[in-house]
Structure formats: C-alpha cells, structure tokens
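Methods — Computational structure assignment.
A single polypeptide chain was analysed. Its primary sequence is given first, followed by the predicted tertiary structure written as structure tokens.
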Amino acid sequence: MNTRTTPPSLHAIRACFEGAIPAMMATCSEDGTPNVAYISQVYYVDERHVALSFQFFNKTRKNILANPHATVLVMDARVATFYRLGLRYLRTETGGPRFEGMKAQLAGIASHSGMAGVFRLLGADIYEVEAIERLEGDGLPPPPPRHGLLAGVRRCAERLSACCATDELLQAVLAVLNDQLDVRHAMVLMRDGATERLYTVASCGYATSGVGSEIEIGHGVIGVAAREGTPVRISHMTNAASYSHAVRSSMREIEPGLVLETEIPFPGLPEPHSQLAVPIVSSGRLLGALFVESPQDMRFGFEDEDALVAIAGHLGAALELLRTADEPAAAAEPPAPVPQVSATGAPVAVRHYLANNSVFIGDSYLIKGVAGAIFGKLLREHAQQGRSEFTNRELRLDPALRLPDLSDNLEARLVLLQRRLQENCPHIRIEKTGRGRFQLRVGRPVALTEIAG
C-alpha cells in the first residue's frame, strides 16, 4: 500500500511568509561548497513562485548567480511547523509592484528589529518552487479557524449595492470593516488627478477625522499601494513619521511657505504595529486607496489582505456607477425649492485665496484646491444672486472652476467639503437634495473676501 502523503501546496503554507520568523537559505558554490544564511523575507508570489529579498552582495548572492538552485527553510509561527522549499532562481526585479510591496514590508521588519539603517532592498529575486516538504516533528495545536471574513465581504457587497450616494458608500465600507471584520482604525482616500495626491474623505477610530489631509502618490504605505496598484501589508511597528505618513516633508517641497498653515493633520496611529493599504481601482483606473491599521503586531494576514482587496473592488465599482449616474442630462421640471432659514447673527468671515483656492473661516484653514474653488463659487453666487440650489452638472460646465476631466469624482469633492464644513463651520452646510443636486444652507451672514495673487 502506498503511504506517501501529498506534499502541501504553496498556498496552503502562506502563513510561513508573514516575516515573523527569519528563514534560512542554503546554497552551493560552483565547486560544491555549501553556505547557509538567514534571509529577511520570503514573499508569496503565486502557486509556483516566491520572491526573496536581495539586500547584500554576499556569499549567498554569489552562489545563486553561479548555481541557481537553493533550499529554504521556513516556519509557520502559529504552529511551529517547518517546511523545506526547493527553489530555482529565475530573475531579479528592481522595480514594479512586487518590488515595492517587498520594500514596504522590509521597512516594517527593519524598524521592528532596529535595523532600519541596514536593511535596504536592492532587488526582488524571483524563484520557482520545485519542491515542498514538511519536516517531521511535533508542532503546536493549530489556532482556532477564523470565521467571518468571507461573510464580511458578502455583507459589504450587499450594503454597497443598496447605496445611492458617495457618502453612503464611504460610511457603509467603514461600518462593515468595524462591525464585521473587527477593524477599528480605517480610512478611505480618493485620488486627485491634477496634483497626483490622495486626500482623505472618510475615516473611523481616530481622535480626529483627518478629512482633507493629503499624501502624495508614491509616498508611504498608502501612496506606494496607490502608485503600484498592489496591496502593501506591514506586520510590525513602523516609524509613522518617516514611512507610513510621509506627508509633511514632501508637501513642503511642493508648496514652500504655504504648507504649514494649510496642512490638515493626517489621522494615523502614532505607533502602528500592523498596516494594510490596497488600491481602489475601477476599469483599470486608480480611484483611491483603502487603508487599515492596528496597534497589534501581525493583526492583518494574507486572508485579511484578500478580503480588503475584494471590498476595495466592490467600492471602486460602486463609486464608478454613482459617478456616471450623479448628473442627469436635464430635469423634466425644476425641483421644489427648499425653504431657507434667514441668516442672522454676526457675519462669518471667509477668505478665499484665488491663487490656490485655499479657504479660511476666520483664521482657521478649511480647504483648498478643487473643493476650495467650488466653495468659493457657491458663496459668491449666494452673495451676488441669492442662490442656494446647485447641480453637479453646472459645476462640471463652469470653465472658471477648471475642474479635472470627467474621470474625477466630483461627488467625492463635495463629500470632502461637506465634512470639512461640519467639523469647522456649523453655520454653513451643504446638503444633497436629489440626484446630482445639492443646496447651500447658510445660518449666519457670510462676509466673503476674495484675494488675488
């Protein structure tokens, strides 16, 4: 009788590639001399391939270039079970989504181990897995199986399909993450195509919402995930100031002399121990990023990554559907006007700087850019014409606003402006009144000053 067991698949041992325990790699030189060394990272690529971090031109590197075969010992830290992988070197990648994902994970490992100044990724070495062998030995009892991830994804899809507005979509995603997946700290960021930045439109779990805060595409965990179109997951504590939320220094370079008074603080954890960012994409076009983090080490595994990618995909499709449906071609009849409450009390001083469309309420910064230009238009026409009813369509067609092309999510801009007003100026509100329509509600007189230059 044949008692041989079927070797495990690479997918079945993905828990070995979380970076909790360093792997060991054995290579041989051309003359057969063996060498064994620790390696920082074994990265799951697909069912047949892994990537190993290339950081130093050492004996291991020299051997693998001369003899492309290697053996790697990895361990599932959950159950203390070892596996031996037979590998064959294929190529080295020095850029692209896989390289950037490994670079981000390596930054977390380096920070966690106090080696941030030493660990530097030179390349991602791609290997074909030719054999997988489980080593004999008693392991630990397996942890209880996780339940609820797939149900959470299903619940998210159901809730998103019932949403009729962008704000509803954002709140639904955050609610599902919190209620179904036990994720307490999360945010959604949208892409600004004109500046190639991401701006926060919704968050949960933080002392301040951070709505309106920005990060450059390509900077930090979130920016890299957006630029490369790939999930980026870190399982250990990182230096938030230098890697995760690399905002302040990059913005100083872009807008010297202005950034310090118009910067909205980013709402991230001061000491994140686990982070996961995934791009929000629709029809191959980047819309934004979905980001979660935790103060716990190893909080997000590959199954969480899979779930978040699926949720981000549903969100991207829903945002795109709403974008194409938020502007009716023409109304059969104008909507009934909503009665306005008379503005009374001391005037609210609003300054609108036309050079970059930054807006201040009194001495407090509110918003800038596209959202600032929209707000300036609304206040100007309210003051000059007494208008309070507006449509998305007229904003699109107004050449003075210089809005991005139709691929930009105008509804997300309005959500951003609406939330900034809720947090900073309760006397002025924006309220949705129908498909592609909204109203400006002013509770106190507004003293608008527009400043050129």
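Note: Residues 302-325 form the longest helix (24 residues).
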